[in-house]
Specification:
The protein is an alpha+beta fold and 84 residues long. Helices cover 20% and strands 26% of the residues. It has a three-stranded antiparallel sheet, covered by helices on one side.
Amino acid sequence: MRHVDFIEFVSWHDSRLYPGMELIVYGLAAGETERWKETLLAATCRTDTDVAAVKAAASKDGWHSFRVARWNGEAPDFTKVLRK
């Protein structure tokens, strides 16, 4: 299964856990160990159940070392980092 196929496992109707947020799932392909080579597996998850479904499907195909990021749709403000 290719990583673009994992979107099939995502439910758009259940946004109770993270309203207004997208959960983005990354993972490493089988045999890969370098973190900078992680691949985007799903960008449309809304709940922990969606994330678990993506991880389960990806695991069956050898993906591992998953990372989940949250995004609220806003552009990043890099000036906050530069001011420190």
